[in-house]
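If your schedule permits, I should be very grateful for your opinion on a structural question. Thank you for your consideration; the sequence and its tokens are set out here:

===
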Amino acid sequence: MSSNRASIAPAVEASRRVVIIDDPVLNSPFEEPSKHFRFTEDGISNEIVSKRRTSSYFIPVPRVRNRRRDQLSLDTEWTADRLQENEFINRVRAKVGVWRASGYTPSPITNTTRQLLEYWKRSDRERRLFFCQIEALETAIYLTEVAPRWEAWMEKSLRDANAAANPELFRIAFKMATGSGKTVVMAMLIAWQALNKLADPQNAKFSDRFLIVSPGITIRDRLRVLLPNDPSNYYRAHDLLTPEQLVQLDAAKIVITNFHSFRPRELVDASKLTKSILKANGNGAGVFTETPEQMVRRVCRELGNKKNVIVLNDEAHHCYRRKPDAEIEQLSGDDRKEAQQREEEARVWISGLEAVKRKLGVRSIYDLSATPFFLQGSGYPEGTLFPWVVSDFSLIDAIESGIVKVPRVPVSDDQMRGEQPTYRDLWIRIRNELPKKGRKTEAIVGEPKLPTALEGALQSLYSNYRNPPQYVPHKLHPD
């Protein structure tokens, strides 16, 4: 295998040509992007376009069916012919941009909202907030406080989108690249909603009760920074509130959980035979397991009796209702098991939120995810964007703004098989050579034996770290 080069910028192979961008940072992380690299039919180019990139997503396109495994693999290469513009997001972005440029006037926003916006955008801040974080809040504010008066089509579009996929819920999604500060945005959403509700308890647009749902225990524990009384809370750490406002925020009620808590728990310890007999006679419902109402009381006990809570879904692409009457995908093996598991987890998550809505009422649901797309097995084409996404700051936007680190990637793959590079479909090529689940533990003797393709890929990647290209990192902060 010949030596490989590496670029810390995005690189795409097209017709055995490689486009390498030595310095991908074009914009300040604290200002609206004004430049971007153009995508062509061959992928990303080094041509700079002097305007902000429009919101688009790349449509996964099935390639030729693999004869050996009789399945499709997805080609998700970033090329212009795969681009699908997000018309709704771009229309909302344009309206919010005009509103921002006008100094948020004319506007029906509250004094509390205006004070928060001014505080977050102060030029003398020691720790400045990223533009994408502020834009996400501006969009949420616009939809809640401005659009109902001036842009009724926005709420109608969102309600139509939710009616088709989440009939009982009203969801608003923010697409933010991993590393761009989603947790900070969650803290800003809580501060904006709670302080407005505390200032005007009769205002039905706001709430000071919050249910934060995560996909797992680890993420749940990390989200403790959203509690105002946590020693490392983000309101203080990121200077989101004045000391006086932070004291006020302590009156808000915040519950942080993982979606697994929505599973009904066993109430009575009984044998399987007893349960099956009672259920067969129609007497088992609610006897051995929690009813949805009991589950909500357990999960949301700390929220009290107040109605219309705000839900924040972290990594919200795990939460969806399977498309009704959708054609069943013909999956097999691990793909089928994985899709079934994802569907069951998604069902538990969204059913739990529907139960909360019926018991307590839900004012709004804010979804945050780097990839708010429907997953395989959802009944929607895999990779389809949630239609209730209102704000988009993608990975390539974050790279061009110097917000996230660019991973080193091998840009040469000389291990060709047929017309496709070996490493592009690495998992498909090595998975049958890996140990199977459930295999008994065996003593390991000598060096581990890796599949040939995996060994080659690791050596290819590692060679780039042994001989990294020269690069001067972009300085994010002026100080």
Residues 86-400 form one domain. Residues 127 and 238 are 7 Å apart (CA to CA). The longest strand covers residues 362-369.
